[in-house]
Amino acid sequence: NLAGDSIPRPKWRKVAYGGMQIGYDDNYTDESFLEEMVMNANVVRRDLLKVMKDSVSISQYLCIVALVVLVWVHTLESSLDENSLLLLDLSLLASGFLILLLTEEKMLSLSLLLRYLLNISFFTTGLYILAPIYQTLTRSISSDSIWAVTVSLLLLHLFLHDYSGSTIRAPGALQTPNLTSCISVNASIVASVFVASRLPSRLHVFAVMLFSLQVFLFAPLVTYCIKKFNFGLHLLFSFGLMGLTLYSIYALHRLFFLVFLLLVLLVNVVCPYWLIRMQEYKFEINGPWDEAKLCFDITD
């Protein structure tokens, strides 16, 4: 017995699927087990100023949607006629093409520009033909239900919108938009149809639908190209858009102005500050007990 007790135990080895080792419990670990422990290895350290700059894209798109709603309100109140709306549509289309030509070298091709113009002509023609259908689409539904669904769709659009890019992809960007971006765009289009169905004339419906589709489909592409071309120009454009939106809302209603101002401050100042402060409470432990991770990408 004494001879048996003096036999040294085999050295403990750190194995994942080797079964129980003789002389050791199943949950045994020696002092070398924690040598490979790493604290907060994958925690990203963020800078407050950088986070605030990145959040400008969110407030920028909030201003774009707010301006669309303002145009809807003025059109429904008959303070904006169809001729002014059509002029606004043409101005937005021309300025959008100009920005794309100046910021995207790959779009300087004349053949590509002609193809875009041809597609837009087919698009506007089909939209004009379908305008009477949109005008009578929700005639049997009460206005309260229309406004409630429209607000819900706009909130869904804002919640699912891709603030880092564009659903209509620019040259050099990712070619496949994700599902949430597509749902966001569809929600904005349905909301535009609901608003257009409450307008008095066919030309009103056509002008509002053309304006809404231009903004919801192509404004993210234009702002994406501006941001990729020059970040300083992106900030300048965003702050100018914020000023225009705040002035327009202030002229419409003081309470809405205060709410939107607080929302912009929340997005650009408060939320980035909260994000930086929460970094202090992150506590991540990595070590030899972690599950194995694949080091290659399975695409098939």
Automatic annotation (TrEMBL):
Major subcellular location class: membrane
Protein name: Phosphatidylinositol N-acetylglucosaminyltransferase subunit C
Localization: Membrane
PANTHER family: PHOSPHATIDYLINOSITOL GLYCAN, CLASS C, PHOSPHATIDYLINOSITOL N-ACETYLGLUCOSAMINYLTRANSFERASE SUBUNIT C
GO annotation (BP), single: pollen tube growth
Bilayer topology: Multi-pass membrane protein
Pfam families according to UniProt: GPI2
Organism: Arabidopsis lyrata subsp. lyrata (Lyre-leaved rock-cress)
Gene Ontology annotations for the cellular component aspect, listed alphabetically: glycosylphosphatidylinositol-N-acetylglucosaminyltransferase (GPI-GnT) complex
Pathway(s) per entry: Glycolipid biosynthesis; glycosylphosphatidylinositol-anchor biosynthesis
Recorded family membership: Belongs to the PIGC family.
Assigned keywords, A-Z: GPI-anchor biosynthesis, Membrane, Transmembrane, Transmembrane helix
Transmembrane segments: 55-73, 85-102, 114-134, 146-164, 203-224, 231-250, 256-276
